Amino acid sequence: MNKTWPIVLGLLTSVAAMVAGLLTGTDTLEQWQLAARWTARASFPLFLIPFIASALVRLYPTGWTRALMRNRRWWGLGFAAAFGMHLACLLVNQWLRDNFPPTGPGDPGFYLYLLLLAMVLTSTDTARKRMGRWWKVLHRTGMWGFWVVFVISDYLAVIHGEWPAQSPLTDPYFVVGIAAALSKLAAWRRAKRRRGRLS
């Protein structure tokens, strides 16, 4: 199977979310608002795969976790494709609100999109070799940055009544996001203990 299929999946998922938003909204502004919101939500599962791949292979070294780890780059690019569609919907929504461009150097989201672009441009073996340890710094910063944005966004959406969940603890996206972070912490602690036994 072609390794690039996660990119196609990311595009198809985000397009489906965009179409659902456009078909559900009652007017043009609400349609693009829902399209932006739902494409962000649709991209979250694609984000989780590269985010927890290394943790899963440390905690559960099986064939499928190793396969996820081998293809983590392509899952990351699939997420980037989906989130790029979210950005397009967000730009249209903000243009309809006469707030274009919606971000700038004073907006934290501006730097998050720059991080995503940098991660995409450096998603090659050549870039990883040339950047050395800075490659890990860039990609780790970007992944945790997106994790913070997703988890905080889900938390705020719930407490502001934008989702049917009664509390963040009953919102699947929030709970899964916290569980993903805890799995990475557990994997880090296991690796630290293993290094301690070998030293």
Automatic annotation (TrEMBL):
Q: Where is the Ferric oxidoreductase domain?
A: 43-148
Name any one Pfam family assigned in the record. Ferric_reduct
Transmembrane parts of this sequence: 41-61, 73-96, 108-124, 144-161, 173-191
Chief location of this protein?
membrane
> What's in the keyword line of the UniProt record?
Membrane, Transmembrane, Transmembrane helix
Q: Which domain of life is it from?
A: Bacteria
This chain belongs to the protein called Ferric reductase-like transmembrane domain-containing protein
According to its UniProt entry, this protein's organism is: Aurantiacibacter gilvus
Q: What is the lineage of its organism?
A: Bacteria, Pseudomonadati, Pseudomonadota, Alphaproteobacteria, Sphingomonadales
